[in-house]
Amino acid sequence: MRKTMTLAALAKELGLSESAVSKALNDYPDISPATKKLVREQAEALGYSPNLLARNLARKTTNFVGIVIRDVSSIYGEMYKSLTVAARHRGLHPILYDTGNDSGLEQESIRNLLDTKAMGIILVPVAEDPDMIRRKTRNKVPVVFLGSKVRSSEVNYVCTDTAAGTELALRHLTHLGHREIVMLCDSKTSGSRSRRIFVYRQIMQDLGQEPRIFPIPPDEPDLSQAGYQLTRKLLSSGIRFTAIYACKDMLAIGAMGALTEAGIRIPEQVSVVGYDGIDAAALPMIRLTTVA
Amino acid sequence: MRKTMTLAALAKELGLSESAVSKALNDYPDISPATKKLVREQAEALGYSPNLLARNLARKTTNFVGIVIRDVSSIYGEMYKSLTVAARHRGLHPILYDTGNDSGLEQESIRNLLDTKAMGIILVPVAEDPDMIRRKTRNKVPVVFLGSKVRSSEVNYVCTDTAAGTELALRHLTHLGHREIVMLCDSKTSGSRSRRIFVYRQIMQDLGQEPRIFPIPPDEPDLSQAGYQLTRKLLSSGIRFTAIYACKDMLAIGAMGALTEAGIRIPEQVSVVGYDGIDAAALPMIRLTTVA
DNA sequence: ATCCTTTACTAAAGCGCTTTAGTAAAGGAT
DNA sequence: ATCCTTTACTAAAGCGCTTTAGTAAAGGAT
Question: Which of A31, A163, B248, B279 has its CA 20 to 30 A from that of B213?
Fold first, then answer.
């Protein structure tokens, strides 16, 4: 392992003071252009690059922004990619944490971001408990919740308008002439879930139809598997339906699998609409209609 | 924003020296158990947690390990998840970089890892150019290449045995009785690609069959789309085949899409085997046979 | 009673930067 | 010729920790 170059070594090499070199590299106005040029060339030549631990400690700020999500292989993994692009444009440096739906890991991730002096945190929480998070961060750093509406007024969040999205999905189906629409949704109650259910019930009522809501079993972590099982049960239950609205694309993909396996053609015999707009929904084998 | 607690403030609070507090928190043997207990309780109570920038600077090591991949929504995103688990078990702290297949970003990521004093880098390179990477890192940090065999002897790498994997996939097909097998592969030449082709040719020769190799168009970034288009062309070309070996699952999924669309049943009429074992391959709608 | 250990601390230096205050030399104004 | 600015630096302190060397007090050995 080679020794790394430091500011002090570079300064010595140049016969300048450390402060002059530091200022030159940071483009301070009280350094002559000639000196700046010299310093930069020498830095480049010797492969000097500032130690960010020291720089950030001295400056008392960093450009780190934490992105804490539950699973990189989900819609949030795709959002992470867009976020990094946006962050970079603002000179910020995103640090990703995948909590794998483990709230212990989530805690640890937040703690770590605080300790590395991140300037902000974007969080897709495992459990929707903004107060716990606030207690953890102790207001030392701004936090933005992603993906779910947060009740607490003290907290910022960004989420999709699930009511509007659900309406979009269902209207699409009714315009196609569907009336017997079943809904596949999450098991755990949340604001988003109840808004979806509300809209669904409303529309079913307008159609004069019985609402049919199927929540996934709470112990099934694999969403596509859950959608698959749920749809199989649905098929054997004898309930009549011509369309499925799934609250998540992965649920819809599972449903499609079960339907196809049962010899039911999509969309000729049964229509399926998902929600999220994940990459997998667009796959040639799938081509799911979804709300992105 | 609240002021953060420092070691100095905690020491003052306790009436101890900073060094004593530091040692207590780091479990040095020359601090009495009673003092350690006191310090820890007070730290907990005041919400003290060491500034990692300062700690790492003082210790001259970190526990960071960089993981630089090309796309989180790929097999490497899934590997990242396993890697984080393994890293955490060893007290290491993984930092992910998604380069989005941009070699400029790759450079920047490596530079950044060096500047934050990462202890090691695991890299899925955009371009297979180990020497450039070595020049960049200047031997200051160990690098392990992931996913491809690296020719340079100075470099460590971890990859799958593509020859064995290809043989596995093809033997599976021949055991099922297939003889007219086509191969879908990457466009850019690489060691892995030529090893696959070598094995495929060998086996085709043993079968007394003409090898049929279809590389994807080099300008198509979406693999599943590439597989889809390739298979459509294949179908309209009139070439007879009963099985497809795709070098990547995404390619295979695209192929399945084209076959299904053409009314060809899988696996009754045509078999498809992929390679990678990505999550999407196991989806209910897909259920692709693959080499994981 | 004296000397040597051991115990449990503290003091001080250092990690590699940044930033504020200070300053010699040069340049302008009168 | 003198005084005031401006220019282009340097010195020194500080960011929040860790670690090495030093030390007073207590405990043991003889």
Answer: B279
| pLDDT tens by residue, B208-226 | 999 999 998 888 888 999 9
B284 and A54 in contact by Cβ < 8 A?
Answer: no
Tell the residue number behind the tokens 């897909």, with chain if given. Answer: B286
Give A2's pLDDT tier (boundaries 50, 70, 90). Answer: low
Q: How, if at all, do strands A181-185 and A156-158 pair? A: unpaired
Render the burial of A86-112: b for 16+ CB within 10 Å, e for the rest: ebeeeebbbbbbbbeeeeebbeebbeb
Spatial distance between the Cα atoms of B31 and A152, rounded to a whole number of angstroms: 44
pLDDT of A142 higher than 80: yes
Please list the residues that pair with B246 across neighbouring strands. B184
pTM of the shown model: 0.86
Contact B49 A114 (CB under 8 A): yes
Distance D15 C1' – B193 CA (angstroms): 52
